[in-house]
Write a structure and sequence with these properties.
57% helix, 497 residues, eight-stranded mixed beta sheet, alpha/beta, 8 strands
Amino acid sequence: MFVSKQDYIKYRFLEIIPGALIWLIFFATIIISFVKPIWAIYFIIVFDLYWLFRIIYFLVFVFISWRQFRKNIKINWLEKVKLIPNWEKIYHLVLFPTYKEGIEILKATFENFVKTNYPLDKFIVILAGEERDKENFLKNAEIIKKEFGDKFYKFLITLHPQNLPGDLAGKGSNVAWAGKKAKEFIDQEKISYENVIISSFDLDTCPYPQYFSCLSYKYLTHPNPTRVSYQPLILFHNNIWDAPSLARIVANSTSFWLLTELAKPEKLITFSSHSMSFKSLVDVGFWQRDIVSEDSRIFLQMIAHYQGNYSIIPIYIPVSMDAILERTFWRSMIGIYKQQRRWAYGVENFPFMVWYFKKNQVPFLKRIRFYWNQLEGSFFWAVAPILIFILGWLPLLIVANQQGIKITVTQTAPHILEIIMNICMIGLFIISILSTIILPPCPQRYKKTKWLLMFLQWVFLPFVLIIFSAIPAIDAQTRLITGRPFGFDVTKKMRKK
């Protein structure tokens, strides 16, 4: 990757920047709280006001995306697709990478998948396993092939070899291997790359029936479809009723954050399950095999390769995925932490952007926008909950025990902060209502009072933001500072019967 030691040092410096900003603001807040507590109070008030602005901004885009979502799920997208000449030429290549998942998860995924209202004979489906899990994978793969394999144009099974040079064991290296095997088949069938839409799905991804019809329509009607990725709305609903309350808060919070992102094209980036043209994937040489955040990195690879001439189209038809659920409560909590830390490690994209966007002549303003979005998002992910709920009160406690401090400031600041927090609670109330409305039907094994618990659970949000959002983000960005290897923590999947 680096032609010289000097290049390596420069890249390492870029890796250090995001985490260094976090620790700098923490140390500065603590020091200033003791040395100049009034300054610290002013800073906290300004910070909280900015956070309030972000919440209002968030709510505006929640309603925009919510309206699009409700509108799009009512459309018969297959009818619209069939009005387009030569629509039958389009094939969907779908990758399902798996590692140590049980047969019940695989069956549930494929039982849902075959319910799509798009013709199944237009699908090339790959079940991509790992050699590290060879015996379990091949046994399960044969079961799935026997039950579902003949329903598609082609069903392929791939086995990613372990310990390949340059590989980080994880989803990225697995789908890169599977993608190359898919290319061999597509070349053999002499199918044009431009006529293949590839979707990289987590194994638990269950697309709504209209998803592939909507995706096909967006692809066929776009003026330059091979220069676009397609990001669906992701809802963590598969097992939402069974997951612990803290896991449900994390899952619903993530779903609504992703919902708002769909309405902001200047900030939208591929996340988790998404789709793109197979031609563009081949052009960039498939996914990077040595990183954690392959889902967002592939989009950035496209931006760099096409010199900024690449974008994302939002798909307001959902795909549903699993919330964290393991055999015990504490294992579930550990699973939440590891998942959030892995997602937060997407900050590794910042040095990649700075290094390759300039090198590949991505337009200056577009580069700055990507740099800012990555840094600001990673910074507030880690810093905001700590400053608002913990460090923000430190200077107030200090001035309360000191003489000669401006009485007006010390008396007014708590009231200002209380007003800001109350307004924020209104936003939380709105989100809690919408999250309850959008839930799938409650399983019969639960009483109807479960709906009330789904609503009341949001009182734990401040705790969740600190323990399962800020701290994992700080952990991830600190690891990037130290250069410690960061493996791919596979999220275990489980469903209650």
